[in-house]
Backbone:
């Protein structure tokens, strides 16, 4: 199964505007069904997200991300937002996407950062569903030191 993370365009903008403080703001991951069609150019706030899952083992709005650290990786020349594994201990409904956003308490003002595409519907069947971030929750590359020019951002 291929899992990819894609940044919302508004997430890049809001990062540049200083609207994300990973040490003090609450960030959450909400889960949606395959009925949600992500649009990284249009979706801006959590209120724009449709088809959030519901059922046993899931609380509307998702779970808070913990252990968020925004660090510079000198080996790969990029900034990486790392976080702890998010675990739904006994999840029944199937999910396709994980949406990461800053929770302001109001879906209409809770800005989106990125989403995870699990590549296919995941069905924990009442069991655990852990979501890990082996290469970070979000990455931002620094300028390429080589002759190819600038690499400003990367989606993975």
Residues:
């Amino acid at each position: 199964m291929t899992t990819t993370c894609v940044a919302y365009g508004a997430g890049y903008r809001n990062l540049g505007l200083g609207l994300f403080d990973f040490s003090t703001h609450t960030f959450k991951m909400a889960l949606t069904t395959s009925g949600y069609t992500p649009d990284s150019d249009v979706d801006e706030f959590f209120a724009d997200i449709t088809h959030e899952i519901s059922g046993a083992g899931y609380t509307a709005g998702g779970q808070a991300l913990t252990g968020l650290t925004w660090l510079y990786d000198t080996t790969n020349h990029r900034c990486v937002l790392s976080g702890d594994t998010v675990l739904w201990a006994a999840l029944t409904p199937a999910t396709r996407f994980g949406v990461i956003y800053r929770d302001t308490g109001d879906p209409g003002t809770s800005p989106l950062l990125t989403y995870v595409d699990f590549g296919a519907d995941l069905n924990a069947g009442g069991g655990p569903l852990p979501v890990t971030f082996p290469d970070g929750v979000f990455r931002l590359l620094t300028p390429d030191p080589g002759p190819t020019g600038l690499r400003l951002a990367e989606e993975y």
Summary: Residues 4-73+84-134 form one domain. The two ends are 14 Å apart (CA to CA).
